[in-house]
Amino acid sequence: MPPSHLRELRIKSSGHALRIFYAFDPRRDAVLIIGGDKTGQNNRPFYASLLRQADRIWKEYLVEQRRGEHDKEE
User: Fold this and answer.
1) Where are the domains of the chain?
2) Statement: residue 73 has pLDDT above 60
3) How far is residue 52's CA from residue 12's CA, in Å, rounded to a whole number?
């Protein structure tokens, strides 16, 4: 099960099971974090790896955002 801040988008494209993890930042902007093609892969290792990466990327993003490195363009 993903951490509470992460959401999963499930897509099928040309017979491929695509999974994308995303979250909403403090400004409520949707941020696509990471995705992968689950086709032919075992569920547990696939999700475990993708979730670890998504959580790490998300935490790095939040640190950068607090530093002002992701200021919203107007």
Assistant:
1) 7-66
2) no
3) 23
Under DSSP, is residue 52 helix (H, G, I), strand (E, B) or coil? helix
Residue 3 has pLDDT above 70, yes or no: no
Report CA dihedral (23, 24, 25, 26) to the nearest 10 degrees: -140
Whether the CB-CB separation of 20 and 32 falls below 8 Å is answered with yes
Asked whether the CA dihedral 23, 55, 60, 12 is positive or negative, the reply is: negative
pTM of the model: 0.76
**What's the CA gap between 64 and 62, in Å, rounded?**
5
